[in-house]
Amino acid sequence: EKKEAEEAANSTARVAELEALLLEKEKKEAEEAANSTAVIAELEAQLQAKENKEVEEAANSTARIAELEAMLQAKEDKEVEEAANASASAAARVADLEALLLKEREAA
User: 50: burial class by Cβ within 10 Å (0-12, 13-18, 19+)?
Assistant: First the structure.
């Protein structure tokens, strides 16, 4: 009986020890899963931030392109206007010279 009681006590102690090991293992696995979830969430947040930055940079680039195109168009418009003014001025000068030449011919 004493031996059986000793074996039963040892068996009970072993069961308690195995249960404690199992609980420790489950706790560790839960902690690792939580850490893994946190890491995944952090990586997803970093990826989202990167995507947001890329979208913002693309929008800024598009806005800059539109701004440069508008500046170029304004420059071209100004050059066309200046050319038209120069042409009108030259035509007026030619008309003046032709009138002067006609006047001189009539005088001669």
Answer: exposed
